[in-house]
Amino acid sequence: MPTSSYFTILSNSCLVLLFQAFFISIAASSDRHTPENHIRTRAGAPFKVALFADLHFGENAWTDWGPKQDVNSIKVMSSVLDTETPDFVVYLGDVVTANNIPIANASLYWDQAISPTRSRGIPWASVFGNHDDAPFEWPMEWFAASGIPQLVCPVLNSVSLSGEECSFRGTSRLELMKNEMDNNVLSLSKSGPQDLWPGISNYVLQVLSKEKPHTPLVYLYFLDSGGGTYPEVISTAQADWFKRISEEINPDSRVPELIFWHIPSKAYKKVAPKFRIHKPCVGSINKEKVAAQEAEMGIMKILVKRPSVKAVFVGHNHGLDWCCPYGQLWLCFARHTGYGGYGNWARGSRILEINERPFSISSWIRMEDGSVHSEVILS
Ligand SMILES: [Zn+2]
Fold first, then answer.
1. How far is the CA of 208 from the centre of ligand 1 (A)?
2. Domains parsed from the chain with CATH numbers
3. Using only C-alpha atoms, what is the Rg of the chain?
4. Cα 54 to middle of ligand 1, angstroms
5. Distance (Å) from CA 253 to ligand 1 centroid
6. DSSP-assigned states of every residue in 105-146
């Protein structure tokens, strides 16, 4: 359904007007592209989301093993998508390792990373991690006798780069997001309000149920936790934005809310299991310390005060996959999905399943080999 008719149908309450105003302002800020702001559930079926975290496409793109890793990451995603058949996918940041991509536009690698989801006709949304717009790091070995290798620029969507374009100048968050949105009708990602820059992936989506089309089943909030070209932090402006928007669209906290960003907040350190993962935490690997954001600017205080916020999902730490309670909400890691990035822990994907009646949110981890573990009820 086009966005305009969608707005017309829902235009008879003050709440909806506020909602419209918000989404129209978002649409305006993302220039000519106005993607859908909602996802619909299938009749009689639970709503299922797969989280793809830390794919790190384009790692050491000039070597043989770099591109091989990307092929393996595509196999992981394909296996998860075919086993779980989710309704929606969240790309939870570090989609590419931009500091390793010696070409002008990292979107070519970004595009490879989203291709398994796109080719199956599944809609998705993405947030930025600390590697997605990181500046290129010139390998020291390029300055030794062997010299700078011949750069191979990937060709995708019949776009091939040549000359100046096939040399590195970096790809900004705005460019990455614009390329994703402009070239993919299934992408529900957005460039958020300009007053939240340099954070870009700040937006909210509603999941509408088939049975009650005017009442959202759940709200999905996406926040940019920084890193790469600016500090790893969720700003006070982002926290205030979340507070304002959530109070506008969900004033009585009646609709459950789920939150997605890349880098764990400091609160994750407080609940982290010391050695083995034990109750109330649920998970299978606890192999490293939480690498938290650099500062806490207020988002967690706001989240814990909202009874509708059920869980936060992050990536970033490839060796952690647990969920632990924090006040009335859950703090969860996804599962390292990509062959790119540090660590050799087996790859997988955290799955979320939202049931409408009775309402419940459950989660588990689906591994590349098809096995399942770490089932947990989050609401
Ligand atoms: Zn990562």
1. 31
2. 19-377 (3.60.21.10)
3. 20
4. 4
5. 33
6. -THHHHHHHHHHHHHTT--EEE---TTTTPPP---GGGGSTT
The SS3 assignment for 93 reads coil
Task: Read off the pTM.
Answer: 0.89
341 C-alpha to ligand 1 centroid (Å): 6
Distance between Cα 110 and ligand 1 center (Å): 14
Q: How far is the CA of 207 from the centre of ligand 1 (A)?
A: 28
> If you measure from the C-alpha of residue 183 to the centroid of ligand 1, how many angstroms do you get, rounded to a whole number?
25
Other residues' Cβ atoms within 10 Å of the Cβ of residue 379: 18
Question: What is the C-alpha to C-alpha distance for residues 206 and 311, in angstroms, rounded to an integer?
Answer: 16
Contacts of 145 (CB under 8 A, 6+ apart): none
Taking the centre of ligand 1 as the mean of its atom positions, its distance from the CA of residue 340, in whole angstroms, is 8
Tell me how far the alpha carbon of residue 250 is from its chain's centroid.
22
User: What are the structure tokens assigned to 102, written together?
Assistant: 């010696």
Q: Are the CB atoms for 22 and 245 separated by under 8 Å?
A: yes
Tell me if 47 sits within 8 A of 90, measured CB to CB.
no
Query: Separation of 290 CA from ligand 1 center, angstroms?
Result: 13
Give 24 Cα–ligand 1 centroid separation in angstroms: 33
Three-class SS state of 80: helix
Residue 94 CA to ligand 1 center (angstroms) comes to 5
Q: Which of 12, 41, 37 is nearest to 23 (CA)?
A: 37
Helices (H), the chain: 3-9, 14-29, 65-84, 107-119, 173-183, 236-249, 267-271, 299-305
Q: What is the pLDDT along the chain (379 residues), one digit of tens a residue?
A: 333 333 232 333 333 334 443 443 333 333 333 346 899 998 889 999 999 999 999 999 888 899 999 999 999 999 999 999 999 999 999 999 999 888 888 999 999 999 999 999 999 999 999 999 998 888 898 898 888 887 777 666 666 666 666 777 779 999 999 999 999 999 999 999 999 999 999 999 999 988 787 889 999 999 999 999 999 999 999 999 999 999 999 999 999 999 999 999 999 999 999 999 999 999 999 999 999 999 999 999 999 999 999 999 999 999 999 999 999 999 999 999 999 999 999 999 999 999 998 999 999 999 999 999 999 999 9
CA of 314 to the centre of ligand 1 (A): 10
